[in-house]
Amino acid sequence: MAKRTVRRTDIVNVAVKRLVELIVEGASILDLCVEGDKLIEEGTAAVYNKSVKGVKVSKGLAFPTSMLVNNCVAHFSPLSSDPLLAQRLAKVDVVKLHLGAHIDGFAAIAAETIVVAMRLVRVGNKNWQVTEAVSKVAAAWDCKPVEGMLSCLQTQNVIDGKKSIILYPGKGQKRDFETVTFAEGEVYGIDVLVSSGEDGKARLEESRTMIYQRDHMVSYQLKMKTSRAVFSEVQKKAGPFPFNVCVLDDEKRARMGLQAAVQHSLVKPYEVVYTPPNTFVAAFHFTSALLPGGPSLLTHPPVWYNPELVRTEKELRRVVAAH
């Protein structure tokens, strides 16, 4: 188990480090996403190539590489048919990357990392303690966590388990959201998304959905031949993990087939999410295991972070006022 954990997290960390080097002015968002998926596929292809007791070990992408620019919050991984195909990064853009790898169904997912939340994800603590801490830190810098975003328990072949943490509950969510206690042996993917907007509100763009995921808890016999064929291809290529439509053989046919699968809850869409124009979103994601000796960080802290180079507007105002 330990060897498997090291291998998949190393693959993710190497991919993140390489992509950070490629995020420069003029870089193509599509090319960056393609390169991220390629790095994960190549990394996982190099390990566990022999069958174990006659069973081939599953491995590959646990989450398609996504590039989220400025006020884009989540799930943007462009297709070759996308109208924003030609979009390239500008000097003033704020960019988040999000990707993941799995070996034998055990996932390691990363975006960027915030350590303050990790200290609270420990055995015996409750999910609301993390919610409150993130809100207080964001408020100290005149920011808001993005409303309704979840961090979830991860188990084999599952990255969105029933135990979860909500960053910034919307109206009615805090009342209805389940209180959970963290337990030894659990693994969590902590997803921290912070907006420069005043209220943390975000909107969905369902018409631009590119990423989907099979729901292994739902079964239904699809009636259309095309839908059955597409769903079979999804099961073969992605298994229980999120996938980009571009991995399927025919995008137009895939979208037609996925409609019925979504309608009957066999597959769930990951809608592209944005905060209002002229706001910016920072994303931090780490995978943490709750071990007997305390929480263990499986994916690395931000590879780009340097306190001498990173300043908030609030901090800059203080420096100016002091002089």
TrEMBL record:
Protein's recorded name: Proliferation-associated protein 1
Species: Russula earlei
